[in-house]
Each structure stands twice: as C-alpha cells, then as structure tokens.
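[09:14] KT: can someone run the structure on this one? pasting the chain below
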Amino acid sequence: MTTVMPEGEALRRAVKWISEEIGEHPDKSVQKLVNEAVARFDLSPRDTDFLMSFYKKGGSTPQAN
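[09:31] RB: done, structure tokens below
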C-alpha cells in the first residue's frame, strides 16, 4: 500500500499534530482539529483541502518503530 506524504514542512507537522491529537482526544471533531491546525501552522486553502480529504478517508501517519 502506498502512503501519500504531504508536501511542505508545515503540512507534515500539521498531519503529525492532528494524528497525535486524535490519539489523545478521540472524541474531538476532525473538522475542529483541522481548523485549529490551519491557524496553528499557517496553512493554505489547498493544504486545508488536503487535510480534510486525508482524514475523511481515514488517513493516519506511519508509526515510528
């Protein structure tokens, strides 16, 4: 299975942060987390669309070993 990696350091940090937040607070809305990440990491509308699509499809980051 191929893992899609977002381009740009801010977007990568946002994916990592959202994934960690979902792990710590599974009751939080993904929409709310994405909106928070957009502000926190100064993301573009294109990045926002990517995040919403990524998490709508059940995306997650690979676990470090």
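[09:33] KT: thanks! The radius of gyration is 11 Å.
[09:34] RB: yep, looked fine to me
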